[in-house]
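Students often ask what a holo structure prediction actually looks like on paper. The answer is less mysterious than it sounds. You provide the chain, you provide the ligand, and the output is a string of discrete structure tokens encoding the 3D arrangement of the protein together with NAP.
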Amino acid sequence: MIPETFKAIVAEENRDGKISPVLRDKDLSNLPVNDVLVKVQYSSLNYKDALSATGNRGITKSYPHTPGIDACGTVIYSADQSVTKGDQVLVCGYDLGMNTSGGFGQYIQVPAAWVMPLPEWMGFRESMMLGTAGFTAALAIYQMELNGLKPENGPVLVTGAGGGLGSLAINILAHLGYKVIAATGKTDEVDYFTRLGAAVVIGRAEVDDQSGKLLLRPKWAAAIDTVGGNIL
Ligand SMILES: NC(=O)c1ccc[n+]([C@@H]2O[C@H](COP(=O)([O-])OP(=O)(O)OC[C@H]3O[C@@H](n4cnc5c(N)ncnc54)[C@H](OP(=O)(O)O)[C@@H]3O)[C@@H](O)[C@H]2O)c1
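The corresponding structure tokens follow.
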């Protein structure tokens, strides 16, 4: 049975004019009109969620609003043939949690094109432990392999290794058999990076070339850069 109301975290303006998150009962009829209704099992916590929950208008234009840029759960209703009631699904990115009511509520209603099947071997909880950061890292590695990257090509550099994306990229690459070089500002955390799967840990200054040369000697078969700027 579909309830008329559900619980959600709602970012709303308080008496001081500040936006902050509170737990509310919401009417299901207030969800955006879209083809697929999903009962949410898990979401993950992303930096964008913190921005949305605290009133960043670059992320969320109007409030009250429910953040949560990703979610997994079970399809309760679908008006689109590509998605079926009972399907276990994931929604990651698009406009979810930005200007579309997001995964920090018990229900989301989204376009069918945003919905992906949950892989059979993956549980709901695990999918959101990896979250959007894991999905992004996996997509990057997938594209690199489509471009011909293989473990035998040589070591792969990951910059910003201690961050959300970097740490998951290290772990996925290591599981796929790559020799991973982790570049970080946290060089005293070698044990942590080794546990993630890094073969070598280097300081970020080593990848922040200041020579001004346009071309440098190749050192790695590939790199996942999560930092940008001169390091990129
Ligand atoms: N998280 C996501 O879901 C996601 C999805 C798509 C795109 N992105 C983008 O990917 C990038 C990384 O995201 P993230 O979530 O991994 O961020 P994060 O958790 O904040 O990690 C960023 C890492 O960058 C390094 N860093 C920070 N300041 C630096 C500086 N001044 N110089 C050199 N390195 C510095 C640090 O690495 P060390 O700790 O190793 O020093 C830090 O841990 C961002 O641009 C983000 O917008 C993120």
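The first helix runs from residue 47 to 53.
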